[in-house]
């Protein structure tokens, strides 16, 4: 019973997806058609990217980058800008959740050393927004992008039009938020290089993960098939560092599978399929934003894609939908966990500040999206 409670608490979205899949299976009994439900390419790419990024993270590459960029940061504004930009741009490659896992604890440590604990709350919130919005710029920045890019057949210009205008607006807003208020010197900050570069061994492993990432990108852009790359990644990781298999978020992969089953079954029930198509079609932007507030943007993308005729608008909707509530993007939960660990009595204050900034960004970007959609 205790294990079930822990599972429900830590993997709520997976549990919901599993219940939906099971209930739908009671209506549409399992048969040979189930095998066609999953998008195996997306699942394979997610697995590969998660394990490759975990490998790079285990080498301390991202922490090294942070240490390097922070040397010489002498003021609160400069330090804040560097940390927000790190989350924003790194999330485009290493995903929003990994960016937050890497740089939020780093931020908490740096501000504690600098004696600016009172300013860290706003910065962590802005870092969270930066990671969620920066990650929308590339097909590999977050799971919903990878999935929608995989099933849509988007060209690079089509993908760019759906996301880059909002990435640009978000960057301007983030820098304005960082620069607002007075600046102060950051005293007594000592940046220590914690990661040891172990000569050829370090650079050899780094090169291996870089090559594997390049192969995955070739799959993303439909230059290589996913099957041989999946085998290559699995075998290489087994030889280089088999412990990385424990770093994969298998619950996320299972969540995808469960939603694929649920959607596949719903599409085989004519009345429900027709109703969902009627509700979603032509309203992908607002449907993506609103649905994400309740079930988060990754499952929202999977759910709504099965009944959408405009995946470009849906892509915009679920990415902007990562703003708003705390669960709109599950990556945001990472930030509050780290913050609450250091400041357990400030969790309520974090939620208030988080909600205010997220709603502000969501309103501005949603209005911009509606205007661009009207013009298009």
Descriptive tags:
0% strand, 376 residues, globular, mainly alpha
Summarize the structure.
It comes from Candidatus Limivivens merdigallinarum. The protein is mostly helical. 74% of the residues lie in helices and 0% in strands.
Question: Would you write up a description of this structure?
Answer:
This protein has 376 residues and is mostly helical. The chain has 18 helices and no strands. Helix 6 (96-113) packs antiparallel against helix 7 (120-134), helix 6 (96-113) packs parallel to helix 17 (331-342) and helix 9 packs parallel to helix 16. The termini are far apart.
Q: Which stretches are low in confidence, meaning pLDDT under 50 for 5 or more residues running?
A: none
Discrete helix count: 18
Rg over CA atoms: 21 Å
- The CA-CA distance between the termini, in Å, is 53 Å
Number of strand elements? 0
Helicity level: over 70%
Order of helices and strands: HHHHHHHHHHHHHHHHHH
Mean pLDDT: 88
Describe the sheet with the most strands.
Answer: none
The shape is globular
Structural class of the helices, strands and pairings? Answer: mainly alpha
**Beta-strand content:** under 5%
Main location: membrane
GO biological process, one term: transmembrane transport
Subcellular location: Membrane
Organism: Candidatus Limivivens merdigallinarum
Secondary structure: elements and pairs:
Blueprint: H1 2-10, H2 12-27, H3 40-58, H4 61-70, H5 76-94, H6 96-113, H7 120-134, H8 143-152, H9 156-179, H10 199-220, H11 226-240, H12 250-267, H13 270-280, H14 284-295, H15 297-305, H16 311-320, H17 331-342, H18 347-375
Helix pairs in contact: 1-2, 2-12, 3-8, 3-10, 3-11, 5-6, 5-7, 5-9, 6-7, 6-17, 7-9, 7-17, 7-18, 8-15, 8-16, 9-16, 9-18, 10-11, 14-15, 14-16, 15-16, 16-18
